[in-house]
């Protein structure tokens, strides 16, 4: 595959050679073809001039800049290569007469082709400096292989010095018997790499190196045969006679072992180590090897991959059957695993059995505290964007990986192999949703998944046990907070999550602490401070995406949202969301956006909320809009907005708010209802209450007189243009909250009730009894519009636009209410459109 990839990368350059060859071989036919199809139709009447020169240079420069910014460097190199070939061959072609430029007679217009071909190369670093510095080519990154070191440059854990010293001592030791060295380390700790480092320190001309992999043999019976076959094969290059003896000796031993492989025979070699060494062939092999004066270093890695009986067979080779002069064994294993494997074969096996096999056991040199973090940094740098890498460097490293006593994320990654495995898994998730979610949340969650996959699943499946949504007063402000509970003996509360996982029998106390810190980092909002990244896992809008690894049809893309916001394409994006039933999600995301950055961003987001709010109301109804949330964004509490964003220029902010209301579009429901809520807060907004009432009057008048009459939306505007007031309570010192229609709009409504169909007004005026049906009464606020009830009755009875059945039924209700002095419900069975509104 590697060869094929290299060849495919060279294909464009091979094509360039072929292109040049075709140009040379078929110079005349190609020239005639170009002459017929391009030159004569376009340039036969071409007239040089200064204006032509400037226009052509401008077009070429624009094209060059566009290509340079949009294409990769390799593509630009190919353009230059093919362009220069075409230019050079045609420029030296006697078939053509090239037209000279008017402004630069030294150059022909055809020379501009060569300049345009080459120009992208010097421009590329200038135009793409930011992109090159900020964004690695993430699309070409594949999985990382868990390979051992092949050179000292790969020694990320600085173990070269210890390995070199072991290699030096091996070369200086004159051993009469085999010398076995055990390299001890846990799985994935780097034993294989350390063995390779020792190998790099050996003099390869003086030492025969042999790598034996017993785990590839398949069963204990084959281990000995394959070992001696390999030994004989490799020694053949040194001495063919020794090779033949070893081959014969190994076959005899293998034949013997197929007849006797009992446990007692395996352990018998420890008590009688000279059983095979007394044979003539063994003595002869040993003598000949000693005579060569050349050392043989046999590396046996991953002893802890084997089954117990296979481990015993390898130990038997080292201690007995292959205990030759000038031979060194370098064996990598996890001592605890090998010791336990021996004890599974016999309860009588002692802890010092391995001491009989290995003359020296060397624990793997410990890495420095930051080695794993450095390796993680190195791999992440080519995996994630530069913006995310800065978050990793400036936030996660100091607070999470270097915080020994609190978060200590580094304890998730225990070995060098863990880093490779984590990065390979993280690559998949990052490519899928890395630009859709908060990077810090994603990395922390993936650390949990890597080390504790069961807990990862628990966080998702039992999230309602550990998390609750706070606060519930406003949709856009909802975010998850961890349930906390009082803890005896501690000043601080502890999470329910920690209490829950403490009860799991398989988690160590230190793992519980680590998991709790990771969990609290994921959901780190508080009652008074929401998490800053609005696409963090704390927000319900994005929570599922972290576990699903993709956007569903009901998810809004944070990446697309930010791109539309940055490129001034928000209108098109709002249309897209509205047409794809994502209007609720988009409005929540707009409400969540931080608008405290600068004046431009503030005005842009507020304008978008107003613009898209009208679409939201059209789909969901104006009662579902979160007016309090919008007020919190635009209300100038303690002059916070004007001081920070408008340089204390309140008039400038007032002009912006007025522009918002001035550009409102029918049916004005959003703006009208917002003013109602603003009026309830009292004075303090940048618009005075009279100014806001004037807007409500304008909305009502403009809508009613634009052909809509007194339809439902017109009535909602009128109903929303009301004012609240307090009425003293007779029986106490308190008061009652009351409301009335805005007096400024009342004359307009009375006029419209005379000239337009008042059906919707009559329907709005009726309060139906929800419990004791049939029952209804007429709102007292409606009667308060008129000087007397009879004035209102006369207006209804004499309105020519009103349907006769509706008029009759409403007057019947009116008369029943009048008989009770408009106090309480009256029984009324409606049969017309006046029946209860659904």
From TrEMBL:
InterPro entries on file: KAP_P-loop, NTPase_KAP_P-loop, P-loop_NTPase
Alphabetized UniProt keyword annotations: Membrane, Transmembrane, Transmembrane helix
Location of the KAP NTPase domain: 160-432
Signal peptide: none
Transmembrane parts of this sequence: 12-30, 50-67, 72-89
Name used for this protein in its record: KAP family P-loop domain-containing protein
Upper lineage: Bacteria, Pseudomonadati, Bacteroidota, Chitinophagia, Chitinophagales
């Amino acid at each position: 595959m590697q060869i094929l990839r290299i060849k495919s990368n060279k294909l464009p350059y091979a094509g360039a050679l072929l292109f040049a060859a075709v140009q040379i071989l078929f110079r005349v036919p190609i020239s005639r073809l170009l002459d017929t199809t391009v030159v004569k139709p376009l340039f036969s009447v071409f007239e040089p001039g200064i204006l032509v020169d400037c226009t052509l240079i401008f077009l070429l420069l624009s094209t060059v800049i566009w290509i340079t910014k949009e294409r990769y460097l390799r593509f630009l190199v190919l353009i230059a290569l093919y362009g220069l070939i075409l230019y050079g061959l045609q420029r030296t072609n006697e078939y053509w007469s090239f037209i000279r430029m008017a402004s630069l007679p030294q150059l022909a217009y055809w020379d501009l082709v060569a300049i345009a071909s080459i120009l992208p190369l010097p421009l590329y670093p200038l135009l793409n400096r930011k992109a090159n510095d900020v964004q690695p080519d993430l699309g070409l990154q594949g999985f990382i292989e868990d390979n051992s070191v092949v050179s000292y440059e790969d020694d990320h854990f600085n173990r070269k010095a210890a390995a070199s010293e072991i290699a030096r001592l091996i070369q200086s030791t004159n051993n009469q018997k085999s010398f076995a060295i055990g390299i001890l380390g846990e799985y994935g700790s780097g034993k294989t790499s350390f063995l390779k480092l020792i190998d790099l320190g050996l003099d390869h001309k003086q030492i025969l190196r042999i790598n034996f992999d017993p785990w590839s043999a398949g069963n204990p019976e084959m281990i000995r045969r394959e070992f001696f076959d390999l030994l004989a094969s490799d020694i053949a290059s040194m001495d063919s006679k020794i090779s033949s003896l070893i081959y014969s000796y190994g076959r005899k031993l293998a034949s013997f072992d197929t007849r006797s492989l009992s446990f007692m025979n395996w352990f018998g070699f420890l008590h009688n180590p000279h059983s095979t060494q007394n044979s003539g062939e063994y003595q002869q092999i040993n003598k000949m090897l000693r005579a060569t004066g050349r050392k043989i270093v046999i590396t046996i890695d991953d002893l802890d991959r084997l089954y117990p009986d296979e481990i015993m067979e390898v130990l038997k080779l080292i201690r007995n059957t292959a205990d030759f002069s000038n031979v060194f064994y370098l064996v990598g294993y996890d001592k605890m695993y090998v010791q336990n494997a021996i004890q599974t074969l016999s309860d009588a096996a002692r802890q010092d059995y391995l001491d009989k096999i290995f003359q020296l056991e060397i624990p793997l040199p410990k890495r420095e505290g930051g080695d794993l973090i450095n390796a993680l940094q190195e791999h992440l740098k080519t995996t994630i964007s530069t913006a995310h890498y800065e978050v990793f460097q400036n936030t996660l490293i100091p607070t999470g990986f270097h915080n020994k006593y609190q978060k200590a994320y580094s304890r998730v990654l225990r070995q060098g192999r863990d880093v490779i495995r984590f990065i390979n898994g993280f690559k998949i998730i990052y490519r899928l949703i890395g630009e859709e979610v908060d990077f810090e949340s994603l990395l922390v969650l993936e650390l949990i998944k890597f080390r504790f996959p069961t807990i990862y699943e628990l966080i998702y499946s039992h999230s309602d046990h550990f998390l609750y949504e706070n606060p519930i007063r406003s949709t856009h402000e909802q975010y998850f907070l961890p349930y906390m509970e009082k803890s005896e003996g501690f000043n601080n509360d502890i999470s329910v999550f920690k209490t829950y996982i403490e009860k799991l029998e398989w988690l160590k106390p230190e793992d519980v602490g680590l998991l709790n810190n990771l969990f609290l980092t994921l959901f780190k909002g508080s009652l008074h401070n929401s998490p800053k990244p609005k696409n963090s896992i704390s927000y319900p809008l994005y929570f599922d995406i972290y576990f699903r690894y993709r956007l569903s049809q009901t998810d809004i893309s944070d990446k697309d949202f930010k791109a539309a916001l940055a490129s001034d394409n928000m209108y098109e994006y709002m249309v897209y969301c509205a047409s794809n039933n994502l209007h609720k999600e988009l409005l929540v995301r707009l409400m969540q956006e931080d608008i405290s950055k600068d004046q431009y961003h503030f005005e842009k987001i507020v304008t978008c909320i107003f613009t898209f709010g009208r679409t939201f109301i059209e789909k969901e109804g104006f009662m579902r809009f979160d007016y309090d949330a919008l007020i919190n964004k635009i209300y100038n509490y303690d002059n916070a907005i004007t001081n920070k964003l408008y340089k204390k220029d309140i008039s400038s902010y007032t002009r912006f708010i007025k522009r918002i209301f001035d550009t409102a579009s029918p049916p004005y429901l959003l703006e009208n209802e917002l003013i109602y809520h603003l009026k309830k807060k009292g004075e303090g907004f940048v618009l005075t209450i009279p100014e806001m009432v004037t807007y409500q009057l304008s909305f009502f008048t403009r809508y009613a007189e634009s052909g809509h009459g007194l339809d439902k939306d017109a009535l909602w505007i009128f109903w929303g243009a009301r004012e609240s007031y307090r009425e003293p309570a007779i029986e106490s010192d308190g008061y009652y909250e009351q409301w009335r229609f805005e007096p400024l709009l009342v004359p307009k409504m009375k006029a419209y009730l005379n000239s337009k169909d008042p059906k919707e007004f009559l329907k709005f005026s009726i309060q139906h009894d929800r419990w004791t049906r049939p029952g209804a009464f007429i709102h007292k606020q409606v009667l308060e519009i008129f000087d007397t009830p009879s004035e209102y009755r006369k207006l209804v009875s004499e309105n020519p636009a009103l349907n006769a059945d509706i008029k009759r039924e409403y007057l019947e209700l009116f008369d029943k209410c009048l008989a009770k002095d408009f106090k309480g419900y009256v029984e009324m069975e409606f049969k017309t459109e006046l029946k209860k509104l659904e």
